[in-house]
Specification:
This is Regulator of Ras-like GTPase activity (Roadblock/LC7/MglB family). Helix content is about 50%, strand content about 20%. With about 140 residues, the protein is of the alpha+beta class.
């Protein structure tokens, strides 16, 4: 295993570092509102500060979203397997006022990304991919 690969694995295992990366991604990437890293079994690893602290029910994004993301990724994995399309790359939901996506980061980690209001699925997908890139290549 290369030193670069080892460094990334260590970063993704440190909730404080991941939380800082999620905060940075939400601040730098237009059209992204929240980002949460979870385990595939639904446990919160880290979240941007907005999804941990906002009122009016949004503090539950990290807690409840983690369980829903695990279920969504599992369903997506089964659909991808059923139609022989390879490994799941993402699951994106379009709602009336924005989008939410679940992105497998590894065999054990998922990334939940939510959009700002009125963001189209195309813009959301491009923005979410930038968040994924920020997490996987934080020094760029």
């Amino acid at each position: 295993m290369s030193a670069e690969t080892q460094r990334r694995e260590i970063r993704l295992r440190d909730p404080q570092v991941v939380g800082e990366l999620l905060d940075r991604a939400c601040a730098e990437v237009d059209d992204v509102r929240h980002a949460v890293m979870t385990s595939r079994d639904g446990l919160v690893i880290a979240a941007d500060s907005g999804s941990r602290t906002e009122g009016d029910g949004e503090a539950t994004i990290a807690l409840h979203g983690s369980a829903l993301a695990a279920a969504a990724a599992s369903i997506g994995d089964h659909f991808s397997g059923l139609v022989s399309q390879g490994r799941l790359q993402s699951t994106v939901f379009e709602a009336e006022r924005g989008c939410v996506g679940v992105f497998p980061m590894s065999s054990t980690l998922l990334l939940i990304v939510t959009s700002m209001p009125s963001v189209t699925p195309g813009r959301f997908t491009a923005a979410a991919r930038r968040v994924v890139s920020t997490i996987l290549q934080p020094d760029r």
